[in-house]
Amino acid sequence: MIICRIVAPSRLRATGATERVSFDLVSHYALGLPDPDMRAGFPDAAERVRAGRERLGARALEVALQRDPTLRERAGESGVRALLRDTEVFLERIARALASGDPGQVREWADWIAPVYRRRKVPMDDLVTLCEGLRSALAAVLAPAEQAAAGIALDQAIETFRRYRRIAGDARKRSRILTALYKGG
What are the residues whose beta carbons fall under 8 Å from the beta carbon of 84, sequence distance 6 or more? Predict the structure, then answer.
């Protein structure tokens, strides 16, 4: 039973199985919010990021490993491969943020993914380093205005990762002095 169009509640009846619902009054059927306009920002830049996703992800991880050489030994070979795989998803989110002009999409993704990394025992500082590697890698395919938009999105992701870093249980290296004070040893 599908409604032809949204009408006053007293006249709300389905008249046939072939009719469709019209959501003209509501721009997004679940939340009442419009879908992001993927032409509002830099759609050409988003396509360039998507096209070079594998190459950019590898370069970003390479830069991150250069900035923090201990990352490879902490994560191990399988952890580095997982980070490389995850950079492609991260770059897709950055591409969506560039296309829509909404950097909040990257921030929301960082908020969703931080608990997953905490379960994997990946320090949030490593993700901040990866974000900086992505910023460096994106400079190869983005114009200055597009880099600024991607930089804002990455800054919001970094802010989110740093917020999660403050929560107890982050896998970062602790100070020996503070550890001795808290353990009493």
Answer: 57, 58, 61
